[in-house]
Specification:
This protein is mainly β. The protein is built from no helices and 27 strands. Strands 1-7-6-3 form a four-stranded mixed beta sheet, with no helix packed on it.
Length: 289
């Protein structure tokens, strides 16, 4: 009997004993050895499935001939099966982030025969580089409101095991945007028209706050603000805040400064009747504001 040439296989594969041969007075064979399993121990070209405990080790299998009639004894031969560890890699758990954020791929892992990895995919940037397992990915601006699939691939180890890869999906949500408008100066008695306020991104509603005066509608983008009497001659700061969109993005806000100038005031004095030739001192005329 001849057990065949020694083999090296990869974790997860089976050893096909196709090189085994028999001759002479051999009429049957039996395979033994290892902790795994044979598809048929009496089949010359059997297959052997290694046990999990044999990964990363050498398994010795023995083929033995039957005992023929007469003085000849059974014979045997051995084959060495080297079971290489396969490379392993996990890209991490899928995640949703907000526009403007970078993501540290903190739960990416390697195992088996992996000694290095390379990240590919996306239009953004990996930091410090694409060969760092737990890299930071900064999305490109064009990837907002999309899902980016990043692939991590192991090195190709020596032997029959090939490189393996895994993917992580990063969804980039649109951030809310608001702009309160340009600062204004109004006169006492006037209202501030917030007509230059804008919204964008994932903002679907807004709320105005601030000041001691009143808004015609705090949820109206182009609201009007009527200052309180106590705010005359001062600067009022009004804040516009977006709604809190679903997902990881937080509300955002912006401010506008409304300067309320005092109006000029003047009083000419009370009406008066005088006699011809007299002069009148307008002593009760006043100014203010």
């Amino acid at each position: 009997v001849f057990a065949g040439g020694d083999q090296t296989i990869c974790e997860g594969d089976v050893a096909v004993l196709s090189g085994a041969t028999q001759g002479g007075s051999t009429t049957s064979v039996t395979w033994t050895g290892g902790l795994g399993s044979f598809d048929n121990i009496n089949l010359l070209n059997a297959t052997y499935t290694p046990d999990q405990s044999e990964i990363g080790s050498v398994v010795i299998l023995t083929v033995t001939s039957n005992d023929p009639g007469g003085p000849c004894n059974p014979v045997n031969d051995q084959v060495r099966i080297t079971v290489n560890k396969a490379p392993e890699v996990f890209a991490g758990t899928d995640i949703t982030i907000c526009e403007g954020e970078s993501y540290l791929i903190v739960d990416a892992t390697t195992g088996g025969s992996t000694t290095s990895v390379t990240w590919t995919g996306g239009l953004g940037a990996f930091s410090p580089n694409a060969t760092t397992l737990n890299a930071i990915y900064t999305p490109d601006a064009s990837e907002v409101v999309t899902t980016v699939s990043l692939t991590v691939t192991t090195n190709d180890p020596t032997g029959p095991c090939g490189a393996v890869s895994d993917q992580i999906d990063i969804t980039i949500n649109d951030a809310p945007e608001v702009f309160a408008g340009g600062d204004q100066t109004i006169c006492e008695g006037d209202v501030a028209l917030l007509s230059s306020a804008t919204l964008g991104g994932s903002t679907s509603s807004i709320t105005w706050t601030g000041g001691f005066g009143s808004f015609d509608d705090i949820n109206l983008l182009s609201a009007t603000y009527t200052p309180d009497l106590s705010e005359i001659g001062s600067v009022v700061i009004l804040t516009i805040t977006s709604n809190d969109p679903a997902g990881p993005c937080d509300p955002v806000s912006d401010q506008i400064r409304i300067t309320v100038n005092k109006a000029p005031e003047v009083f000419a004095g009370a009406d008066m009747t005088i006699c011809e030739g007299e002069r009148y001192l307008i002593g009760d005329a006043t100014k203010g504001g």
